Amino acid sequence: MLLVLQTTHARSGLTLLLVKWYLAKFPNHCAPAKEDTDNGLCITETNAVLRYIARKSESKLYPSDLKQAAICDMVLDHKLCSIGKDIASNFIYPKAGFGPAVTDEALTAAVAKMKTDQWPAVQKFIKESGGPFVCGSQVTIADYSLWGHVKIVSILSPDAHLLKECDDMKAWFDAVEGTVGDDWFSDDNWGFWKQKASE
Ligand SMILES: N[C@@H](CCC(=O)N[C@@H](CS)C(=O)NCC(=O)O)C(=O)O
């Protein structure tokens, strides 16, 4: 870094060095990323990172039971590729300035899809397991992953149709929220979103 700072284009040099350093570890060009300094493992992909952390610590947040693990995996992937993707592009990115604005019609259509299609695909497992979580009485990384997106929506748009219109989503959300420790998050974490909510 010292070498770079001595160049006339210090900032761009530093950026280039950081990019090279990052890509050498994480060639997928993506965040989030995790390096485990215990064994040199460098991984990207949200779901792989979540599973790795949970499995390494032998946490119940990732089920050891094969069937429950499959359900957890399915909801994680469904969140990433379908419901979470739509929540982000319709309710989060436009407000945060990460994506284009969406029309009221598009929002209504997104809520309808979540209500009749995407959320019921999660709700099925909450019902079948007896709830209140996706895998029954044990909260998992699948719940936390989806909860994170819904939480941001609840901060950005407290009156968002999402929680009201998706059957029992509020009950599930409150159950997950109830497992979150008081000291897990602070305004250091939520501050950015709270600021966006007030803009
Ligand atoms: N499937 C990936 C997607 C991650 C992703 O899209 N990350 C964005 C930031 S939220 C990114 O790193 N984008 C870099 C780029 O588009 O160059 C995951 O779930 O981790």
How would you characterize this protein structure?
It is a single chain. The chain is mostly helical and 199 residues long. It has 2 domains: 2-56, no CATH class; 66-183 and 190-195, Up-down Bundle (Glutathione S-transferase Yfyf (Class Pi), Chain A, domain 2). Helices cover 65% and strands 4% of the residues. It has 9 helices and 2 strands; from the N terminus they run ααββααααααα. The chain has helices spanning 2-5, 10-25, 46-56, 66-96, 104-129, 141-156, 161-165, 169-177, 187-198, and strands at residues 33-36, 41-44. The protein has a two-stranded antiparallel ribbon. A hairpin with a 4-residue loop joins strand 1 (33-36) and strand 2 (41-44). Helix 4 packs antiparallel against helix 5. The longest helix is centred in the middle third of the chain and has 31 residues, at 66-96. Glutathione (GSH) binds next to loops.
Main sheet summary? 2 strands, antiparallel
Bound ligand species = glutathione
The sequence of SSEs as H and E is: HHEEHHHHHHH
Kindly estimate the percentage of residues that lie in beta strands according to DSSP: under 5%
Task: Name the poorly predicted regions.
Answer: 1-8
What's the tally of helices? 9
- What is the annotated CATH architecture of the largest domain? Up-down Bundle
Instruction: Report the CATH C-level class of the largest domain.
Output: Mainly Alpha
Principal-axis shape equals globular
- What multimeric state do the chains show? single chain
Secondary-structure-derived class: mainly alpha
Mean pLDDT: 92
Helix content: 55-70%
**Biggest sheet, strands in spatial order?**
1-2
Q: Termini separation (Å)?
A: 37 Å
Cα-atom radius of gyration = 19 Å
Q: Which fold does the CATH topology of the largest domain refer to?
A: Glutathione S-transferase Yfyf (Class Pi), Chain A, domain 2
- Please tally the β strands and state the result: 2
Domains (count) = 2
